[in-house]
Amino acid sequence: MQGPDGMKRVLMLGTDLGGRGGVATVVSLLRQDGLFEREGVLYVPTHVEGTRAARVGAALKGLVRTLACLARRPELVHAHAASKGSFVRKSVLLALARARGCKTVFHLHGACFDSFIAGASPSMRRWIRHTLEHSSVVIALSSRWAGFLREFAPRARVVVIPNSVPLPPMGPDQVRPGRILFLGQVEPRKGVMELVQALALLKERFPHAQLAIGGQGELEQVERRARALGVADRVLALGWVTAEKKQQELARAAIFCLPSHAEGLPMALLEAMAAGKAVVTTGVGGIPDAVRDGDNGLLVAPGNVEQLAAALGRLLADEDESLRLGARARTTIEEQFESGFVIGQLSAVYRQLRRAGEQ
């Protein structure tokens, strides 16, 4: 939907869609599945991956473009934000939008937003609360994140809208027995070191078990740990995987594992569930809104290597159980997280804000 002069009605702010992070994936899917055309969205990137100079340049360019758009006063300004610099950039732009009389949507994706608040100065905490409470709507990815935000900023209007994923067609069976897949940033927060340790605990019982790691980050540290534990020959570093390669790796995987210590609502997990994979993960952030232990996946305590090894071993030893959990996971995506369902929720928020602005 556009205004009578052709002006886009929704200005959306976020990271460059050519990036590799979860937010870029989320927004790209919204565009691909029709939200931009349906709602008249103009997307302005305010962040790009790369050198400090590249990031500063993107922020300045995003500021100039945003100011130019605000001069024409779009109905809504929708910002996808995380913590630290991402929050600072978006909070300032949203404040400028409100000064122009625009309705604003603060869409939180940061997995560590609670830690960001806990470590912030008193003045920054006040600004964070101000931003949340003065936004027309705050979007949280899960009921747990919504509860946290409501407690921190009681006057904020918080709604829960999960990340969405497409439901891919089920192709021919390409599963490689014993193949465990990890997708994500390779860093301690994602629990990848514990995953390597769990693999070492399982190596005697399941000599065919293999861990494929897709992502960028601390790969050298992971490889050193694998050598020290005697499982270097069982760990395959894939590096960053493209969208096409991701689907190939999901098709090959027997199990998907993401033993994170902190999360928003990880796209890789939802994509694995959509592909019909049995998932082993942790009950942090928004994950419990998607995964119910024993029903459509297995949940373990973050950092608990023994629990992680036991859950993986359970699925490696019981293919029928793995298939059952994978089928239930796909059904969950179809019913609660499929792209059309989520786009409908976003459109409903936009409609409500437009009606409020007309009163």
Secondary-structure map with pairings?
Blueprint: E1 10-15, H1 22-32, H2 35-39, E2 41-47, H3 52-70, E3 76-81, H4 84-99, E4 103-108, H5 113-118, H6 122-134, E5 137-140, H7 143-152, E6 158-160, E7 179-183, H8 192-202, E8 210-214, H9 219-228, E9 235-239, H10 243-252, E10 255-258, H11 267-274, E11 278-282, E12 298-300, H12 305-317, H13 319-337, H14 339-358
Helix pairs in contact: 3-4, 8-12, 12-13
Protein name: Glycosyltransferase involved in cell wall bisynthesis
Pfam family, one: Glycos_transf_1
Family: Belongs to the glycosyltransferase group 1 family. Glycosyltransferase 4 subfamily.
Which geometry do the CA atoms define? globular
Largest sheet at a glance? 6 strands, parallel
Tell me the structural class.
Answer: alpha/beta
* CATH class identity of the largest domain: Alpha Beta
Provide the residue-averaged pLDDT.
93
In spatial order, strands of the major sheet run 2-1-3-4-5-6
Amount of beta strand: 15-25%
Distance between the termini: 20 Å
Secondary-structure arrangement, i.e. CATH architecture of the largest domain: 3-Layer(aba) Sandwich
Would you list the SSEs in sequence order as H and E?
EHHEHEHEHHEHEEHEHEHEHEEHHH
Instruction: Give the count of structural domains.
Output: 2
* CATH third-tier fold name of the largest domain: Rossmann fold
Low-confidence stretches: none
CATH superfamily of the largest domain: Glycogen Phosphorylase B
| Fraction of helical residues | 40-55%
Number of alpha- plus pi-helical segments = 14
Radius of gyration: 21 Å
Please provide the count of β strands. 12
InterPro entries: Glyco_trans_1 (IPR001296), Glyco_trans_4-like_N (IPR028098)
Protein name: Glycosyltransferase involved in cell wall bisynthesis
Keywords: Glycosyltransferase, Transferase
Domain Glycosyltransferase subfamily 4-like N-terminal: 10-163
